[in-house]
Structures are given as structure tokens and as C-alpha cells.
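WARN  no MSA supplied for this record, continuing single-sequence
INFO  ligand: WTA
INFO  echoing inputs
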Amino acid sequence: MQTKEITEVTEAQIAVHWQEEEYYYPSIEFIAQANMTDESIHERFSLDNFPECFKEYADLLTWDKYWHTTLDTSDAPSWKWFVGGRLNVSYNCIDRHLEKYQNKAAIIYVPEPEEETQQVLTYRELYVRVNEMAALLRDFCGLQTGDRVTIHMPMTPELPITMLACARLGLIHSVVFGGFSGKACGERIADSGSKVLVTMDSYYRNGKLLDHREKADVAVQIAANDGMEVEKVLVWQRYPGEYHSENPMVEERDFFVNDVLKNYRGARVEPVSLPAEAPLFLMYTSGTTGRPKGCQHSTGGYLAYAAGTSKYIQDIHPEDVYWCMADIGWITGHSYIVYGPLALAASSVMYEGVPTFPDAGRAWRIAERLNVNIFHTAPTTIRMLRKAGPDEPEKYNYRFKHMTTVGEPIEPEVWRWYYEVVGRGEAAIVDTWWQTETGGFLCSTMPGFQPMKPGSAGPAVPGIHPIIYDDEGNEVPTGSNVAGNICIQNPWPGAFQTIWGDRERYVKQYYERYCKNPESKDWRDWPYLTGDAAVQAPDGYYRILGRIDDVINVAGHRLGTKELESACLVVPQVAEASVVPVADDLKGKVPDIYISLKPNVEPSREVEDAVVAAIVDNIGKIARPKHVYIVPDMPKTRSGKIMRRVLASISNGTDIGDVTTLANPEIVETIRKMVQGEEEVDFFG
Ligand code: WTA
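INFO  complex generated
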């Protein structure tokens, strides 16, 4: 790999590099039914036809008022799509399907306990429940178009119901992943300025009914410390009428949604007709600086892009049973469980719990029972399912026509198991590369006419035009297999509009690096920096190598190293902390933590445990480190900067390189011995 051009690469340097693979071709059966087999789509979406080409996606929606300007660049690089148009997302995902599909399943909900039966929400039922919830949000909470609502909920149907109720009113929802801590939720409430928090009392995870409501008290407190007073906490009940939380409800602040909803039985709320550019939601994600940032997504552009990519790349038809096993608390769940599929009148399956609960066959039993034919998950889950039960899929009678992988690079070996065993050599696979910021897919094969290549995401999807730059801003030759920073040359409708409340950071982080002219109103001058390193093979397929910034991709979820480090510093004994990604068989990457202690503090098991606890409290269990190493000092440059890269090489057992220019080169060998053996690593265990 060529690392010279990308000197600051952290993850890319330690990424797994696999060789070029052979093509796999989609089956005749798949092609025969595919939504898109017309190769000219790439021509239609070429740069010459930009931006008008995206009319094709916008026309999948129902507009209250048709738009007059496809792309307005006057406020570059905040792009405005379909200007002049008005629409409502909940209308597009529900109401317009009622005439034809009112009795068709919109959401099929599978609770984790296997003895609990599925719940099917038809489009009619979804319509009724979304309307009632919208009435509650408007009349009981007094919320108005443009207000923000934080939703901290597990995977139950009440989550998409709440989101769609917000969308009906033009409230901007900010869904926080249910597994995140109360503190993480509180920070997001404060940043978004949400007066209302919607949560749930409990949910099932790995056979246990977890108390989720307890996090709300922490969240409200943290938000208050940050100057944001939450007026109402709406608490859904996992079992209506029962309360499964140790924490008492707070008088005049907390309300059981199920109770209050009784006052809105039969209510109907006219969908608010919104400008295409009105924000639909915020999704917080990690970036280079400590604070997570709220990516703001639009109404018209986002929905058009989610619908278009769901139709042509997920190949969703209304007749399909589509199961995306992501959590709705991440962007994948927003675009490809809720908005994209429902815009197409699909039947979207939601599963509450752990894919291997109570045993390794669970996922395949669900697929068999519901007759799922489109399956969507992440490499981490595929690795987990493969490890838990490599032969399980064969025992069940299901048949997938299409499968997706998303969120991190997939090893060719794991890809082949997915293809041969899960997909029985019949299902087309798409390896979709994209981001929270991008709203929808950037790279993937078109399943109906492009061959798959294990380990490569594929070429760019229609209307996306990547370009790879080196650190000096030179274009890396196309198809040269040389690594560099992958950017997108052109705007697209799914792209986020800004960082909530921080346009400066938006411009700086995503557009400054390769901007040709900061005064320009021409989109050609504003390549979008994805923050990933990539190579392009001569056939045009891209292989994503990993992040170039301080982001660790754990099991497909983004964690900022700075967020993790500041959590460590909450422990009073800790002087310095440095977090690096270490390769992991199941999760792809996990954090390894190096800390140094304040003077006169002795290393101890207690400090290690306190660091782990601080991470779980501040961020959540998904961020749990693989190891905590207490080191006598950090390797530093002469200017005092901690050399994370050196620590990452030690953790991963890769070449450490030349360290002679460091201020304290001798420390490197001491740490290496601690970590890689020769000395007992865990000297407290
Ligand atoms: C990584 C998830 C390789 C990448 C949709 C990106 C991938 C980050 C892939 C975004 C893929 C996502 N192959 N890497 N197919 N998909 N990534 O915001 O590093 O949670 O920048 O969005 O995940 O993660 P995010």
C-alpha cells in the first residue's frame, strides 16, 4: 500500500489489505425481476446531466407543489435541492399508499422473546397511530414546526411511529441510539435544544428486560447543566400499562404516552406541507473534534435520495419482505428501515434484539417465518453469525434474492460465507459505502447489471462522482490502485445540509481541505471530503481502507477518539489518555486505551476499571475498550504531541517505523514489551 501520500492516516495504515478478487455475477432470476437493469442509468446520471438527472429520484415522491430549481448553489457549500417544492415526508411514507395498500404490512415487528408474537402494522394502522401521536406532540406538548424532539428509544414500533409523527408536523427529530448512555443523550438534547424527550421504560436485549427509563433522568440533568431545560419526558411502555423501571416517574415532567394517547383516539392531523429544504432530522455522529455533531438532513432531497437508492440498489418492490437488521438509532436505520422502504410502500421488518438470541439460528428462523427476501446487515453481524453458527442457515427454509452489507469493509472470506451459505449462491450482494452525512449510498454495484467483487464496495452509484486526492491536493490517477483521500466532486440530494448550529465547522471539516476557491458559488470548486482513504482499481471499483481522521469504526459504529479520551480524563487519577483502534475478529476495530497517571498515583486494577466505567457511562457499552494499558509515559513528538500512530502499531503488532525523532524514543520499547508480551500484560489480573 502507498502510505506516503497519506501521512496522517491512522486506520488506513493498519487496515486489512486483501488481494483483488474474482467477479461474481448476479443470477438470471435476480436480473429478471430487478428494478434497474438498464445500464444507461450511469449515462443519464453523468456529470454532463448533473444536476437535472436527480429529477428521476424526486419524481418517486408526491409533491404538494412541484419544485422550480433542481439545485441552488448560491449559499455554497450548503446546497439546496428541489427549491420551490413542497411536500410532507409522513404523507409520502404513509397516506399516499393507503388507497392501494392500506391492508399491507408496513412494519413487521419481531420482539426478542421468541414466545411473543410478531406485531404487524398495516399502512392503515401506521396511519392511525402516527396521526394520534402527532396530535399528542402538537396539542399536549405544544410543539411547532421547526422545534426539535430528542428520541432515545430501543427498537420497537413506537420509534418509527414517533419519527413519522414528528415528520408529519415538521418537527425535527434527533434519534439517539438506545444503547447510548443517559449522558450522551443529554449532550445531544442540549446541542439540539429539544424541549421534549421521548423514551421508553424498558426493552429486551439478550434475554433481559433492561431498564431504559433510568437514562432519562441522567439525560435531563446533563441537558439542564448545559442550559437546556427539558419540559416533558414522554415515556412509552414496552408493555402498555406496565412500568418496568426502578426509577419513579417525575411529577409534571414525565408522562406515559399510552395514557395520554387515549385523549387523542381517532385524531387526524393534516400533514404540514413543508419546503423541500426544511430540516427533517438531526443525526449526531463523531468527527475529529470532541463534541458529536448534529448532521442536519433535509425533507425533499433526503427522501428522494433514500427512495431512489432503496428502489434501485436495495431493489425493493412493494411485494418484497425487506429486513434490515440495523438499529434505527443509526443513519442506516433512518434511510433503510424507515424512510426509503416506506416511501416505496415496502414491508419493513424490525427486530428488537440480538441476532443470536436465544441461539445462532434466530435470524434465519425470522427470515423463514416472515419469508424475508431482502436482507441487510453489517460485517460485524455477519462475522458474529458465522462464528456462532456457520452451518445454521442451511437448516432453515428461506430464500434471499438480495443482501446488503454496510458500515465497514468486509473481508473477502466473510463475504464468501455470506454469499455461499447465507445467500445460497443465489442472492445478489451489494457492499454499500456511505456515511451519516451522505444520507444514502455513495458506492455500490448496481445489483441488476454489475458484477460483485468481494472486498470492494464497487463503483460509485448513479449521480455520485468520486475523486481521490493525495495530501498535496493532486488528483490520484483513476484506476491506479494508489491510496488517497476519497472525495465526491458533486453535491447530491441526500447530502446533509449543515452541522446543526455550526456552519463554520461544517465548511471546515468537509469542504475546506480541497476547496478550489472559498468565494465560489460553483459546486465544481467544492469537493466533499469523506474522511475515508480508498483505492480505485482499474475496473473502477473502489476499496475503502478506513478513516483518515480520528474516528474509530467499532462494529460499524463511529466513535471519536477525542470523545473516548475525554471520558478517560474524567477519572481523577488519569493524567493523559490516548485511544487507538485495534483489529478485532468480530467487531472489525475496537478501542485500545493507553493512560498515564498523575504524579504519585500507583497503577492499579481500580484505575483500569474506573476508566472502563467512565467510558460506558459517558458513551455507552459499544465503546467498551479491549484493553486499558497504564503506561509510564506516552510516546511524544518534540512539540509534545502524543504519537497515536506509534501506539496503534504496538496494539496491532505492525511495524512501528522510525521513532528516533521522538522526544522520548526509549518509551516505545517499554510500552511494546508491556503490550506484546515478554512481560505480563495484565499485571493486576
Ligand atoms: C465506514 C454508516 C467500508 C467508512 C452508513 C465511513 C464503510 C463510515 C462502508 C461511516 C463499507 C461505511 N465499506 N467502510 N461498505 N460503509 N463504512 O456514519 O469509514 O456510521 O466513513 O455511516 O463507515 O459510518 P456512519
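The pocket of WTA is lined by residues 285, 330-332, 406-409, 431-436, 457, 530-532, 544, 546-547, 553, 558 (CB under 6 Å).
INFO  checksum written, moving to next record
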